[in-house]
Amino acid sequence: MIPATLWTAIDTLLIGLLYFYTAFRVGNLRGKHRIVAPATSGHPEFDRAYRVQLNTLEQMGLFLPFLWVAAFYPIGWAWLAPSVGLVWLLGRIIYLRSYMADPDKRVLGAMIGGLTSAVMFIIAAVGVIEACLVPRAN
Amino acid sequence: MIPATLWTAIDTLLIGLLYFYTAFRVGNLRGKHRIVAPATSGHPEFDRAYRVQLNTLEQMGLFLPFLWVAAFYPIGWAWLAPSVGLVWLLGRIIYLRSYMADPDKRVLGAMIGGLTSAVMFIIAAVGVIEACLVPRAN
Amino acid sequence: MIPATLWTAIDTLLIGLLYFYTAFRVGNLRGKHRIVAPATSGHPEFDRAYRVQLNTLEQMGLFLPFLWVAAFYPIGWAWLAPSVGLVWLLGRIIYLRSYMADPDKRVLGAMIGGLTSAVMFIIAAVGVIEACLVPRAN
Questions:
Q1: Cα A66 to Cα A64: distance, rounded to the nearest angstrom
Q2: B-chain residues within 8 Å CB-CB of A104?
Q3: Distance (Å, rounded) from C-alpha B52 to C-alpha A127?
Q4: Neighbouring residues of C55: CB distance < 8 A, sequence distance ≥ 6
């Protein structure tokens, strides 16, 4: 069986790949629509792609710290946190695809991301509280 | 006594909660003022909230890495880094509240955040330098 | 010899310093060109500096997670990941300097950053795959 921290590392690499894709797409669309730096808007398709990239970064800034706190202070079901990480990733892929099609359709993906972030906070908090109650050597 | 790394994890969860609040507020104000995605401006209250969220993310991107390096390579007073983390958090709450009231009043909160980031850098650097001088098994 | 994780911590502090500089510069130029918050544009020099700061944050959000996964699951050549980290840092310094002079000259620095991020992903992925094949106690 692969330890939970290793699954957390795999989640992190996959999340990084998704984010790389959102950033790569912004670069491509900047060329396609001739948006001259430092402008970050100028064509609807580019604007959506840039907003998707930045929102992905904003949500990673919330999710990755929770995910790694959960890895450092795991609950009994140590596999739960990295599994929720995959659901978050799925939510963000849905967000990306639906936002590019029509920003108004972003709600489902955004909700999956938000709910899994809240769940990850709870998992991490439970792990930290358990570690407070049963002091260990770290 | 609760180990310093555990306090660092608690800091991280609290910082995440604050950031979640700044992002949640942006979502709410987007609805209230009918700012249609992908726009990120359109009403002064929304603009302030969005700027607070992004600035919080910008400062977390500086502070969390320093905080965790300080946790991995602690100085003798291992409780100092997570304590400074709580002061940073307080500074960011002050920033949030004063910025929403009037952006010109953001200076105090921003200064507390900046100074505690500088202090955290020094704490982390001292810990790393000590670890270089006394090589350990990591 | 200084262990690879310690080099990773040193990389992280240096990357933080670079990012701090990009953010500090934005603050200074905000004062110089009297860009009133919450505006994030209004003068070409400020616009470039703000874009450099945000792009640095965007790229850190990709690079630091890969760098630390590589530190937690090192390959045999454990020194390789933190060395690539220094090349990334160099690329970002080139990016900063050339972007401030002329945004069109940002390509070299951006490419060094992008390529080293891809290399870091591969290093981290190899380390994680090796750890999957030879299960360890973490």
A1: 5
A2: 36-37
A3: 30
A4: C95, C99
Q: Tokens for B78, please give them.
A: 């291992």
Interface of B with C in 78-97 (CB under 8 A): none
Q: Full-prediction pTM beyond 0.90? A: yes
Is A37 near chain C, with CB under 8 Å? yes
Q: Diameter of chain B by CA atoms? A: 58
Q: What are the tokens at B88?
A: 């940073």
- Kindly report the length of chain C: 138
Residue type, C84: V
Other residues' Cβ atoms within 10 Å of the Cβ of residue B76: 8
Helix, strand, coil in percent for chain A, rounding step 5: 80, 0, 20
Cβ neighbours of residue C103 closer than 8 Å, sequence gap 6 or more:
A36, A37, A38, C48, C51
Beta-carbon separation of B13 and A50 below 8 A: no
Distance CA C98, CA C102 (A): 6
- Over the stretch B11-35, which tens digit does the pLDDT of each residue have? 999 999 999 999 999 999 999 999 9
Total length of chain B = 138
Distance from CA of A105 to the nearest CA of B (A): 10
How far apart (Å, rounded) are the C-alpha atoms in residues A81 and A136? 21
Full 3-state SS string of chain B: CCCHHHHHHHHHHHHHHHHHHHHHHHHHHHHHCCCCCCCCCCCHHHHHHHHHHHHHHHHHHHHHHHHHHHHHCCCCCCCHHHHHHHHHHHHHHHHHHHHHHCHHHHHHHHHHHHHHHHHHHHHHHHHHHHHHHCCCCC
Do residues B92 and B21 make contact, with C-beta atoms less than 8 angstroms apart? no
- Cα–Cα distance, B120 to B28 (Å, whole number): 33
ipTM of the complex: 0.93
- Closest approach of B116 to chain C, Cα-based (Å): 13
Could you give the CA distance from residue C64 to residue B8 in angstroms, rounded to a whole number?
18
Q: Determine the Cα–Cα distance for residues B134 and A96; give it in Å rounded to an integer.
A: 48
Q: B38 with A103: CB under 8 angstroms?
A: yes
pLDDT at B137: 52
Q: Residue C45, SS3?
A: helix
